[in-house]
Structures are given as structure tokens and as C-alpha cells.
Write a structure and sequence with these properties.
- Chains A, B: Keywords: Decarboxylase, Lyase.
- Two copies of one chain form a homodimer.
- Chain A is 39% helix and 15% strand.
- In chain A, the strands form four sheets. Chain A has an eight-stranded parallel beta sheet with strand order 1-7-10-11-12-13-14-15.
- The first copy, chain A, is α/β, with parallel strands linked by helices.
- In chain A, helix 4 runs parallel beside helix 5.
- Chain A has 13 helices and 15 strands.
- Chain A has one domain: Metal-dependent hydrolases (TIM Barrel).
- At the A-B interface, helix 6, helix 8, helix 10 and helix 12 of A face helix 6, helix 8, helix 10 and helix 12 of B.
Chain lengths: 379, 379
């Protein structure tokens, strides 16, 4: 039997305290509580033009998370609050709630079953009260709080920052503190792009989720690169949701556009592609070719180090990139439309890892769990 | 010596008649004419929040196009009007101008030097007056006009259609006529996504060009897939600018989102990934890993045919996908910031083709030119 662990780094929760808030609200985001044939029939509305989706105990009940993990052979999950986090709250409320939710999540993990004498089955990403009008001091306090909660290994973050996006210099003290703390920053989308882009047809949630979400992550990360954040904070550990969205496929175009634009051509220390090798990518892309390509793009980043010694025509070693990729499920989102023993969305991501050409057992075991244990200092 | 041809399928022109229109305008799109030290110092403004870029004879002078081709060893170019085409014109004006510009472009090509007894060095993509309020009859007339102009081999098209996007049923007669005509439809972006997404920092044109353009192409193509256009018009030949933008990398996520959404789950004939194998992709992606990945995504489409016989765990034959990929330069856009003999943007795309792992000489020659000759029936 293999000792390899399966670790889910992209799995969400609405903690009971947060779910209660969603139930109490009359505008987005909210849970609308009703009943059908005597059973609760709650629906969750979080997106612009959202038509809602069924929401139930799988979103807040820890036992449901553990059952889901057992059913899919997941040994450990690093759980994060689901979007839209605290984005919609006034600063003081966001600050109070962040503190409480971080304590709640610590408890959620600390009381979870043990995986081994030294490991729990649940760890977590905390929350910062990252909203307009918040003080830098409050953000630094939250980082300190999370650093002291031993089961929280990072923070999950949206893309709005203090309202001007993540490329605002206002966030430099936050990046500095996060870099120093060693906490992993899980960058996750919520807003997509302007809904006008989706047109008038009813395509359900497909366009905002399949395209808008990855676009948002791509834009946010690109703006971080262009703002020099990775030049100033080179040890920041940023984990990108949904395998970095479209960033890998657009990264050579990005590098070319930068090099051909007088405004930015000489601003950065390295070719844009170099920065992709400093990032971490979840493996939530649903296809083996996508994962292999992301792995290539990470591997090739060495070629693009300013003054580096790797020629740009050197073939990539795909194995190398796998070390920065980590399995995830996006649970409890994307449930099967018809009940099945295992969720198709999970099975697809596992099969994708298994089918990547050029990855051996070591690379696959790494992506499935060993990379996460290492990233979160759990070995 | 190799008989392999280098053919540029992504190369633009503002025909003199169109450039004169841009000069006459007081709102976007426009050319602002001024002079610096006695020399003309014209600048082109086409994008929202555009800060302009130098524009000169390389945009309208055919001799400049041919000189550029000679300098880069390009045997043949299939030239298209640059964005934003006729999008901003009232219907009657768009219709008149489309007819004239199609005649102009035919002349531009027909009078060009010969490459061989049966081939010219220049061919073209015509224009449809695809604007709100235009009649279907006018669009069908334009398709008929272009079909009869022997050097026009396709049309270039933006993403707005008649104002509601390309997924509107209003366009079904147009798709039907295009399918019947055999004209290649070159889908090209102009609008990107809402500028709010780019934030407040001055990053030049990098974000709208590097990300906005490919996002727009991705959205338009996805909307076409979701609207069943490729199910209804299976022989339509659509060529995607910039290697399909982000569509390849998001295609498995798209397939998964479709399968998990009750609104669309059973709407299409095939898994979303199948449709990518029906498309053509220019090779304007600036990196070998990107091109190899696009090739994989085309190759794998066979696996995703409804009721097909190729198991989903079959490794892809990367060579297969190369047949639907075609070299392009995006000239006269992306000139080098400092004068150089060869343009870096062109050299990068050629080097990328040459460096794709898993492509042999046949595949590389195909992407460089043979695929274009075949697609445009020039063999």
C-alpha cells in the first residue's frame, strides 16, 4: 500500500456563523430559505444575475466535509471560506467577523479527526478583513492572529483588495507581513468580468464560472506582476485558483505585449514568464493536457530569468513544474446533477492528474498530496 | 532548398479609403494627424482609454507590406482589415463602405507580385457590414460579392454581430451562407472586456491587448458553441485570432461547467472540447509550449465526440492538431520599440513554431504555410 496522501487544497466552507449572516441578508450575497414538501429548500445567490443554486449542510457541516473526503479517498483538506468572503461588509463589521471566523475555522480544524499522531485531517485558510476603509493596522493584526492559530496555514483572498485591486501600493505592508509570516495566499475569484460580456442568452452560470472566474484570477495576477509585487516580495507564496485561469496560456503574449509597450517595457526585473515559476497552481483544470501545459509553463520559467543561463530554446522538463501544482476539488460547488457515489468533478480532476503525459509516479503523488504537505509545512 | 512556403494569415491593413475615414473622424476610432519637426507624426486611437500609437505607411501602403514580407521571408500574406472594421458606422454607410473596401482589397491582391504562375503574394479577407440595423439581405449580398472576388478567401469578423453578439439567431442565415460559400471566417477581437477590470495603474496597452483581446475571442467562441452554431453549421470554417485566446486552457473547465449546469447540460450534441477540433487557430501565441498545447487540445477533440470510439484516457498525438494551426504576425501591430532588421514579434512566433516538442518537419512546414495553402484552396 502506498503511503501517498491525497490532499485537497481547494475546498470551501460557509462556516455556520457566516451562513447565518447570509440567511439574514436581503441583498446579495444571501441564502433564501424556504421549504418544499416540508423539507428545507434553501438557495444560495452570490453572483451578479445569479439564478441561485441548492445549498445545504454540505456547505457548513464539518461531518459532511469529512464524509465527502472519505467517499473520495481524500486524507486531508485545507479548507477555505467560499466567496465572496467579507467583501460586502463595512470595515468594522468585516474586522470583527474575520477575527471570529478565523477562530471558528481554527476550532473546525483543531477538533477534526487525526490523520496521524502529528497531523489532523483538516487545516484551513483564514480570512483578512480586506475591504475599503480598513486600516493597515487591522490587516496586520489579522495576519498576526492567523499566524498564531496553528491549524491555519494561509489566507484566502479575493481580487478587490481595498477597493482598487491587488496592485495598489496600499497593500505593500500586507504583502510584507504575509511574506514574513510564511502564510500561503490562496488567490480566488468571485466577480468575473462585467456581465454585459455574457450577452442575452440563458446559459445558466456557465459563462461567469467557466470564463469569468479564470479571467478574474488572470487579471489580478497579471496586475500583481506588472505592479512589481513579486519583485518587491520575492518570497510571497501565492496559490492560484483554477490552475491560474488563463495566465499560463496568455503568458508569452503577456511577455510580448510588455516588451512592445514603452510604458512598461523596462519596468520589471524579469520577463513576465519568469514570475509564473514563483507561483503555485491548484490542479483544478479538469483535463490532463491543461495540467501538463501548466506544468510546462512553470518549468520553462527558468529560461526567462534576467541574465539567466538557460537558453530559451531549451526543451522543458515537465516534471519540474509539477512540484508547484496541488490537487483540489472545489467542493461543495459543482455537485453532480444526478446523485452519484463519487462526484464527477472530483473524479475528473483525479483522472486528469493520472493521465498527464510526462509525469511519473513521483510527480503524480506530489500533485495529489506531497506538494501540499510540503507547501504547508506539514511534513 | 525547401519548397515550403511561409504564409502569414494574421496581417492587417487599413486600406487608403479606410485610413482617410479614420483621419476625418473626431471620435474613436481615429487617426490624429500632426507633425513633428516637419515630419508627419500621426497617431492611431482605437481602444477605450487609448493613449495612441504611431501610425504610418506600414498600415496602408502595399509596398510596405511587401517589404515587410521580404524582410521576414514571408512568401504570401492573407491580409485583413484591422479592427474596428465598420462596427462604428450606420448601416447604410457600413454597407457602401464594405462593398468598396472589398473591391479595394481585391485590387490590392490581384495587382500584387506573383509567387508562382498560379499564385499571387497577397490574398485577402473581406468585410461584411456587420452592424446593428443592417438587413440580412445586405449581409448575404456582401458574402456573394466576396465569393466572386477571386483573391478574397474569407472574411474577418468582430464579435458584436448585429449588436447582440455572434450567438444571436439573427445570424443563422449569415452562418448558412458562409458555410455554403466555403469562405474562412477569421474571428478577431477589438473590445476586450470592460476597462474597469484593468484598474487605475498606467500599464500602457498591455492589459487590454494581452488579456482583453484573447478574453473577447474566448467569450465569443464559447457563446457560439453554447448557442449550437457548430451543431447547426458543422462545415463552417472559423479561424481564431491569437491561437484561440484562452479557450484551449479553459476548455475542460468549460466542459465541466456545462455538464454541471441544469440549464445547458443536455443542449449540445458533443462535449464542449469536441468543438475545438472543428476550429482553426492562428499560431500567434509567442511561445512553443502554448502552440504545443493548442495542438494537443485540437488533437484530443476526437476523444470527446458523442458516441465516439476513442477512450478519454488515450494519449494525444500532437502532430494531428498542428494541421489546424497557421502562422501569423499581427503586422503592422507590435513593431519593435527600437528599430531592428527583423521584428521580434515575428521572430518569436517563428521560433515558437520551430521549438514545439513533438512536431516534426512536416508539422512545422504545415503550420508555417502548407496548412494555409490548403485551408484557402491555394494548392
Amino acid at each position: 500500500m502506498s503511503l501517498a496522501r491525497l490532499v485537497d487544497v481547494h475546498t470551501h466552507v460557509y462556516l455556520p456563523r457566516y451562513a447565518a449572516l447570509l440567511r439574514s441578508r436581503t441583498t446579495l450575497p444571501r441564502i433564501i430559505t424556504s421549504s418544499r414538501e416540508g423539507k428545507p429548500d434553501d438557495r444560495l445567490f452570490i453572483l451578479d444575475r445569479d439564478t441561485g443554486r441548492p445549498v445545504g449542510s454540505q456547505y457548513w457541516d464539518r461531518d459532511e466535509k469529512l464524509k465527502f473526503m472519505d467517499r473520495h479517498g481524500i486524507d486531508m483538506s485545507v479548507v477555505s471560506s467560499a466567496n465572496p468572503w467579507l467583501d460586502f461588509l463595512p470595515a468594522s463589521e468585516a474586522q470583527t467577523l474575520a477575527t471570529q471566523l478565523n477562530e471558528d475555522l481554527e476550532q473546525y480544524c483543531a477538533d477534526s479527526p487525526s490523520l496521524s499522531p502529528s497531523l489532523k485531517r483538516l487545516y484551513g485558510f483564514g480570512l483578512l478583513p480586506l475591504v475599503p476603509e480598513i486600516s493597515t493596522a487591522a490587516l496586520l493584526e489579522a495576519i498576526e492572529q492567523i499566524s498564531k492559530l496553528s491549524h491555519l496555514k494561509g489566507i484566502i483572498m479575493g481580487t478587490r483588495g481595498l477597493g482598487k485591486g491587488l496592485d495598489s501600493e496600499d497593500l505593500d505592508p500586507v504583502w510584507a507581513a504575509l511574506e514574513k509570516s510564511g502564510l500561503v495566499v490562496f488567490l480566488h475569484p468571485h466577480y468575473g468580468v462585467d456581465v454585459e460580456a455574457w450577452g442575452e442568452k440563458d446559459n445558466g452560470h456557465v459563462l461567469p464560472l467557466a470564463l469569468g472566474f479564470p479571467f478574474e484570477t488572470t487579471i489580478a495576477t497579471t496586475r500583481l506582476i506588472l505592479a512589481g509585487v513579486f519583485d518587491r516580495f520575492p518570497s510571497l507564496r501565492l496559490l492560484l485558483a483554477h490552475s491560474g485561469g488563463a495566465l499560463p496560456q496568455l503568458s508569452s503574449r503577456l511577455a510580448s505585449c510588455i516588451e512592445h509597450d514603452p510604458v512598461v517595457a523596462s519596468r520589471l526585473k524579469h520577463d513576465a514568464r519568469w514570475y509564473l515559476g514563483k507561483l503555485y497552481f491548484d490542479a483544478v483544470a479538469y483535463g490532463p493536457e491543461e495540467l501538463g501545459f501548466v506544468s510546462d509553463v512553470i518549468s520553462r520559467s527558468q529560461r526567462y530569468e534576467a541574465g539567466g543561463s538557460v537558453p530559451t530554446n531549451t526543451a522543458v522538463d515537465r516534471a519540474l513544474g509539477s512540484r508547484r501544482m496541488l490537487f483540489g476539488t472545489d467542493h461543495p460547488f459543482f455537485p453532480p446533477l444526478q446523485p452519484t457515489e463519487k462526484w464527477k468533478s472530483v473524479v475528473e480532476n483525479l483522472q486528469a492528474i493520472d493521465a498527464v503525459t510526462g509525469w511519473g509516479q513521483v510527480e503524480k503523488d506530489g500533485v495529489r498530496g506531497a506538494n501540499a504537505l510540503s507547501l504547508f509545512n506539514l511534513v
